[in-house]
Write a structure and sequence with these properties.
Layout: E1 3-7, E2 17-21, H1 31-40, H2 42-49, E3 59-63, E4 71-75, H3 87-104, E5 109-112, H4 124-138, E6 144-149, H5 152-163
Parallel strand pairs: 1-6, 2-4, 2-5, 5-6
Antiparallel strand pairs: 3-4
Helix pairs in contact: 3-4, 4-5
The protein binds adenosine-5'-diphosphate.
Adenosine-5'-diphosphate binds next to α1.
Length: 165
């Protein structure tokens, strides 16, 4: 199936799994992480506490609790340090490990936010290229893969990059 770009609040999406751009503590934060915890309810934090955090580039899964999505896949993207700390590889790993975890849990529809491009400051164009590259590799294994963008700038960026394929 084709990769979809959707400008939306990811917490509202009725898909099997939404991906959370979490931090290594998995204990919540700002941005999309905060929005997901607020919408899922306090049971999500309780479920995250027992996971003992998550390394950068890795992924862990919990139920979605009060979300329309059945699952939340928590992944940790890299903080941008100018590109000298394997940020590109780590960002790819975050997408790739999220997809792998989705496959092992029978997930068919999945939505991703623009991981690392908020407070973690990863350059948006390179981040979108990495996201799309990972999504393309899993296209035939999912019924829906959604790039959930939050603002018009990211919408235009993803539309442009997908049109270039
Ligand atoms: P990171 O720490 O990985 O940079 P952020 O949450 O700061 O994560 O930002 C990641 C992306 O998530 C940004 O593009 C931001 O605009 C977007 N975002 C914030 N809130 C939401 C939401 N409710 N739904 C979808 N995307 C969101």
């Amino acid at each position: 199936m084709a990769i979809e770009v959707l400008q939306a609040d990811i917490t509202r999406l009725d898909v099997d799994a939404i991906v959370n751009a979490a931090n290594t503590s998995l204990l919540g934060g700002g941005g999309v992480d905060g929005a997901i915890h607020r919408a899922a309810g306090p049971q999500l934090l309780a479920a995250c506490r027992v996971l003992n955090g998550c390394e950068t580039g890795e992924a862990k899964i919990t139920p979605g609790f009060n979300l329309p999505a059945r699952w939340v896949i928590h992944t940790v993207g890299p903080v941008w340090h100018g590109g000298v700390r394997q940020e590109a590889q780590l960002l790819f790993n975050a997408y790739d490990n999220s997809f792998q975890l989705a496959l092992t849990n029978g997930i068919k529809s999945i939505a991703f936010p623009c991981i690392s491009t908020g407070v973690y400051r990863f350059p948006k164009t390179e981040a979108a290229r990495i996201a799309i590259k990972a999504m393309q590799q899993y296209q035939d294994k999912f019924s829906r893969i959604i790039a959930c963008v939050f603002n018009g700038e990211d919408l235009a960026l993803y539309q442009k990059l997908l049109a270039e394929l």
